């Protein structure tokens, strides 16, 4: 049965005396596919970051699985949720070293699956040679796909996707969107300006209206 996984309760966000979010309330059930739409600066990314504890509300509470988030249980949330940032310049060095580092952490040790990596490289149309290239030298779309592959290998079932298709061509966008939206068990909260995310099973929430 579907239950409430994430709840935003009476959320207000102010930055430097500017009101960004005014009394936002939302319950996200397990398996829901949510799309946050809204003008640039309306607070979409900030709403995603609240769930990871990367931003904090000025007022209001966030619940995950019935628990009010605090500085202790946020670590449990981070083990279950994956946030893919819209900022791509978060890694450096050869791509293979990035995978090695991420999957050397104790919590991720058992997540690395070479067969899955090979499968995702092919599915997302990346040449195997990319593993030897420097991340800095990749195109925006290549970086975006590497970040997506890392997230998929981490094998979560809640994904917070912050403009993850902005550098992809039409065909690749469709593949990425279908991959995420097509998994009925995953809970998705997507922040995007791209109408392609507005599929039948996506619930669109306008932020800043
Ligand atoms: N740490 C911060 N300190 C001050 N202002 C911030 C901070 N984080 C976000 N903001 C401001 O809050 C507003 C909302 O930012 P946010 O990135 O959430 O918007 P967005 O809707 O995701 O925008 P975009 O569509 O351009 O990605 C912006 O005006 C931004 O400058």
Automatic annotation (TrEMBL):
GO MF annotations in UniProt: ATP binding; ATP hydrolysis activity; ATPase-coupled transmembrane transporter activity; RNA binding
Keywords on this record?
ATP-binding, Cell membrane, Membrane, Nucleotide-binding, RNA-binding, Translocase, Transport
GO CC, one annotated term: ATP-binding cassette (ABC) transporter complex
Keyword Repeat attributed: no
What Pfam families does its record include? ABC_tran (PF00005)
Its localization reads: Cell membrane
Instruction: Please report the record's description of how this protein sits within the membrane.
Output: Peripheral membrane protein
Q: Where is the ABC transporter domain?
A: 6-207
Q: What is this protein called?
A: ABC transporter related protein
């Amino acid at each position: 049965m579907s239950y409430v996984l994430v709840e935003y309760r009476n959320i207000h966000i102010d930055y430097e005396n500017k009101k960004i979010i005014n009394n936002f309330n939302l319950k996200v059930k397990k398996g829901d596919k949510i799309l946050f739409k809204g003008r640039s600066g309306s607070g979409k990314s900030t709403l995603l970051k609240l769930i990871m504890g990367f931003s904090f509300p000025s007022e209001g509470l966030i619940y995950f699985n019935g628990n009010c988030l605090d500085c202790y249980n946020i670590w449990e949330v981070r083990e279950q949720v994956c946030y893919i940032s819209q900022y791509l310049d978060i890694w450096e060095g050869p791509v293979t070293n990035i995978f090695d580092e991420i999957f050397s952490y104790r919590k991720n040790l058992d997540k690395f699956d070479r067969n899955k990596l090979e499968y995702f490289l092919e599915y997302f149309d990346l040449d195997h040679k990319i593993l030897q290239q420097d991340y800095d030298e990749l195109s925006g779309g290549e970086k975006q796909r590497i970040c997506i592959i890392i997230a998929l290998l981490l094998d979560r079932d809640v994904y917070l996707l912050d403009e993850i298709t902005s550098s992809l061509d039409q065909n690749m966008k469709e593949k990425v969107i279908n991959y995420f939206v097509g998994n009925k068990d995953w809970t998705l909260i997507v922040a995007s300006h791209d109408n392609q995310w507005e599929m039948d099973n996506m619930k669109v929430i306008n932020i800043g209206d």
